[in-house]
């Protein structure tokens, strides 16, 4: 049985290229972001050590850039255009489906809606040259040396893991979106009820939960008891939804610390996460001091 080909390449070989370069992309992003953040930051949406955006990007380089290898100038500009278009599409797709911007180049000059920018696009051209001319030839020789049965086994096992990882991640993203929608709705209702109770419709609709708590406490004495009970109930519901949103989104916030959203107010979720980390650190410090005290006695 002859294996199907795609642009002259066996499907299983292309899939292994995808997995290998996704892993290389994960190493690159993790090292770069960990260096910038001064602590370990495992990048990527999936649980496993892969960044599919790099895997697809490298496949584009391998499949479509080869005809331009004899003209480096054309090769470079084609690579810049194609890879920039791919990065823009991924950024647009994620923002459209999750309503969250996971990377933002708005602070860099010559950007397009913060999804792509000129320096990164030029970098893509350099990376394409390095990938096609320097990295891929030895990788291709290594892949060709793998026996067919080993290649099929690797493809089957990695594909299974990738599918399980993808389904799990999509489910988690759906939970995050649902939790953030409910949190936003609860926050909007709480802000509106507080504004109406105080006859103050000038309140900022984007205020986070801490600001609302301060206003609620400040206005408590001047409000009727039933109104205060209603606001307290709304605040308790908001806190419960906030804890759920913080828990569901924790992995994505740890991996994309600077993500933003036009639809959701993320300040409260970040603050809840910071408070949780502080409580964990305090508990660890207390246990450590108790163990040291026990040793002294």
Write the layout of secondary structure elements.
Blueprint: E1 5-6, E2 9-10, H1 11-37, H2 52-64, H3 72-98, E3 111-112, E4 116-117, H4 118-145, H5 148-197, H6 209-219, H7 225-255, H8 267-296
Antiparallel strand pairs: 1-2, 3-4
Helix pairs in contact: 1-2, 1-5, 2-3, 3-4, 5-6, 5-7, 7-8
Give your account of this protein's structure:
With 297 residues, the protein is an all-alpha fold. It folds into two domains: 142 residues, no CATH class; 126 residues, no CATH class. Helix content is 73%, strand content 3%. It contains eight helices and four strands. The chain has a two-stranded antiparallel sheet with strand order 1-2. The chain has a two-stranded antiparallel sheet with strand order 3-4. Helix 1 packs across helix 2, helix 3 crosses helix 4 and helix 7 packs across helix 8. The protein is elongated and about 80 Å long. About 3% of the residues have low confidence.
Q: What can be said about this structure in brief?
A:
By secondary structure, the chain is an all-alpha fold. 73% of the residues lie in helices and 3% in strands. It folds into 2 domains: 5-146, no CATH class; 171-296, no CATH class.
Distance between the termini: 75 Å
Low-confidence stretches: 199-207
What value does the Rg take, in angstroms?
A: 25 Å
Strand segment tally:
4
User: In sequence order, what are the helices and strands, one letter per element?
Assistant: EEHHHEEHHHHH
**Spatial strand order of the main sheet:** 1-2
Principal-axes shape call: elongated
Major sheet, described briefly? 2 strands, antiparallel
- Structural class per helix/strand content? mainly alpha
Overall mean pLDDT stands at: 77
Any idea how many domains? 2
What portion of residues belong to β-strands?
A: under 5%
The total of helices stands at: 8
Quaternary organization: single chain
Residue share in helix? over 70%
């Amino acid at each position: 049985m002859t294996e199907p080909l795609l642009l002259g390449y066996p499907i299983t070989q292309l899939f292994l290229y995808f997995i290998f370069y996704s892993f290389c992309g994960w190493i690159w992003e993790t090292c770069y972001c960990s260096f910038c953040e001064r602590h370990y930051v495992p990048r990527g949406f999936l649980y496993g050590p892969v960044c599919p955006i790099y895997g697809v990007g490298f496949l584009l380089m391998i499949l479509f850039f080869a005809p331009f290898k004899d003209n480096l100038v054309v090769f470079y500009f084609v690579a810049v255009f194609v890879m920039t278009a791919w990065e823009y599409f991924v950024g647009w797709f994620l923002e459209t489906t999750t309503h969250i911007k996971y990377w933002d180049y708005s602070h860099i000059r010559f950007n397009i809606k913060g999804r792509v920018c000129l320096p990164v696009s030029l970098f893509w051209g350099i990376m394409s040259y390095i990938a096609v001319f320097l990295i891929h030839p030895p990788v291709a020789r290594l892949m060709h040396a793998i026996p067919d049965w080993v290649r099929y086994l690797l493809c089957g096992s990695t594909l299974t893991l990738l599918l399980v990882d993808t389904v799990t991640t999509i489910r988690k993203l759906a939970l995050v979106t649902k939790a953030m929608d409910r949190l936003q709705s609860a926050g909007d209702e709480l802000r509106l009820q507080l504004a109406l109770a105080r006859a103050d419709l000038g309140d900022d609709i984007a205020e986070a939960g801490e600001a609302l708590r301060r206003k609620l406490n400040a206005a408590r004495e001047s409000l009727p008891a039933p109104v205060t009970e209603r606001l307290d109930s709304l605040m308790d519901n908001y806190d419960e939804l906030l804890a759920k949103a913080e828990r569901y989104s924790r992995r994505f916030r740890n991996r994309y610390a600077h993500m933003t959203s036009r639809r959701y107010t993320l300040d409260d979720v970040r603050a809840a996460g910071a408070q949780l980390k502080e409580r964990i650190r305090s508990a660890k410090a207390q246990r450590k001091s108790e163990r040291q005290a026990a040793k002294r006695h």
